[in-house]
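With this grant's support, we have settled on a layout for protein records. One resulting record is reproduced below.
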Amino acid sequence: MNTHLPRSLVPHPDELLPGYLLRPSDRLATTPLAVAERCGLATATGKGFSTAHLVRLDDDHLSLLTQATRLTVSEAHRLTLAGQFPGYPPVGRTYLGRPRRQSAIAHDGWVFTSFSRYCPDCLAAEQPVWKAAWRLPHLFWCPDHRRLLHWRCPACHAPAFSAGPRDDRAPRPAHLVPAPEPSCHPPPADATAAGPRTAGVLQS
């Protein structure tokens, strides 16, 4: 399924695709996975959102996303971790002389694709953004707020932006989460610290 979203949102600098899709889901009172389906990035068959989309979008999915969101190809490209290249070489198509597939990059440990770190103070800001850099393993500190990044939701203790922990507490394979449940911990990036969906959630 691929249809135009009711309104187009301008991507924030440093924003990653799941955070971008999370914002219209809150405004449309639906789940992020439902928005991803409308953009052609997920299926209703239970397979969810491919972690390979976090790394780079192939031409077909890039076309579907730009049609649905009215983004340019360049704007859509910057919503993936490929936008961290060349500053972060492991997300490039070639690394250490070896060509690599998107799926291999998404699962080889050079990026966090099953969950996201985050800075609670950044998400409580007036215009908060889920930053792509929070998915890079070597970054664990917010220079703006001089604090360590968190990785679990303080409300439900599931890894942020994951499908939640398994019984052995390891992160489950990522979907576009929070999905399919409508509640979001931490909440959508457009919410404010005083909003009803953020109360008690973004506290350190």
Notes: Confidence is low (pLDDT under 50) at residues 174-183, 186-204. Residues 125 and 204 are 14 Å apart (CA to CA). The helical segments are 17-27, 32-38, 52-55, 59-69, 73-77, 102-107, 120-123.
